[in-house]
Write a structure and sequence with these properties.
Layout (H helix, E strand, L loop, with lengths): L2 H11 L10 H15 L4 H17 L5 H18 L6 H32 L6 H12 L1 H14 L3 H17 L2 H20 L8 H26 L30
Helix pairs in contact: 1-10, 2-3, 2-4, 3-4, 3-5, 3-10, 4-5, 4-7, 5-6, 5-8, 5-9, 5-10, 6-9, 6-10, 7-8
Length: about 260
Amino acid sequence: MTFQEEIQIHEESLRPEETPQTDTHEMDETLERDVRAVLTDDPAAIAREVRSLTLRALSEGTLDQGAAQQVVRAVVAGASSGAQGASDGQRALREALQGLDEALAAAAQATRLTLEEAIGNAGAFSRQTLRRRLDDLSTLESLFIETVSQTASSAAGFTRTTLVDVADHARVSGSAVGSAVKEGVTSLGRALAETVSDQVEVTTSVLQKEAALLAGLTSGVLQGIADRLSGAHSPVAVEEPGEGQSEGGADAQEPPVGS
């Protein structure tokens, strides 16, 4: 399927009268509860299970900054409270945060793949829409670190210590999502500057439609990554950027993930 055909499919699905109303508060509570329950499982499986839960939640949203923030907050809250009932709470919390980090790295990769296709199809999207999506991508690592830090400020005991350690380590040594974001922002920023020209005028309604289309395409790529990672027992090998990426990103490889 070509990128233009994918766009057409998503355009046909964007009928306001048929758009279901989603209770985001209920979804956040469900995600938080599911993550909390996972921390009582085998510690070796926690990262993988939290990664899967996070990927599913991200793929069902718009993957913009606001939606990603809600998901990250729910996951960190669920992990922090769930660690209290785990046999090894400190390890369980670290594993959960690792899973969240890996899921955000996958979201960064999905965004990058979609933007690469969009930029390569001149005229499919306005520069403003592409720039906004690139800006959303650039905030993913800081969103992860800041949410963990904010949660630590109101926590106590090993929960606080663990959250602070994870946030500090991410700042100093980096994170999976940070690596994915850095690579994507660098290459996409250059491509955007070179290939997409400014448009004289783009109405608000057009920007909203484009944002919804691009979000749908990105979620589709992320859904594919989530499907391939479901039940995975070992890390998935990743090809270098530019290798093995098919048109539309449908068969593109996901970023490095832990088991």
